Predict the 3D structure of the following.
Amino acid sequence: EAGVVQSPRYKIIEKKQPVAFWCNPISGHNTLYWYLQNLGQGPELLIRYENEEAVDDSQLPKDRFSAERLKGVDSTLKIQPAELGDSAVYLCASSFGGKGDTQYFGPGTRLTVL
Amino acid sequence: RKEVEQDPGPFNVPEGATVAFNCTYSNSASQSFFWYRQDCRKEPKLLMSVYSSGNEDGRFTAQLNRASQYISLLIRDSKLSDSATYLCVAYTGGFKTIFGAGTRLFVKA
């Protein structure tokens, strides 16, 4: 069974440029998460989807970050404009349900903002 | 205070040693707990769930103490391949999943 797929794996951009990350969850998983992970820290939740509905986006910096999950499958996370402090690994995870079910992570996108 | 706190380590132990990690959580409404393992520059992967009665999986034992609001992970007979960062995770009411910052373990020959 295919795992969570993310692309790109690496992205280097200059500050103030836009960037987008894509995630394809495990088939049949209704819940999708986007996390941000800084070096030496644990993943921090940005947004959680139940099917196509964003049910927890309280930690998403809405002035520059946006996300969508059309048709309740793939998801895209966008940053516009990127800032130096956005350099981090962006992880996507999925789970069958949202109530404490095991989360399966993709390999992440390592973003460097210059 | 962070909602989930872990000793960052690193823990440096020889092969065959027993090592224990503790993790405390602040939200008494937390319902489920997990340990994830994260290798260097890789994604986190579930190591084991933590049940109220405690659970064991081979060399790994996880325990939960709700009264004191901490969970623990015990690794017996450490192997070189156990070297990784171990993330403590609490699932709270409101469907929030909170990760600790992780504890780094280095097992040396």
Observations:
- The first strand of chain A starts at residue 5 and ends at 7.
- Chain A has a mean pLDDT of 94.
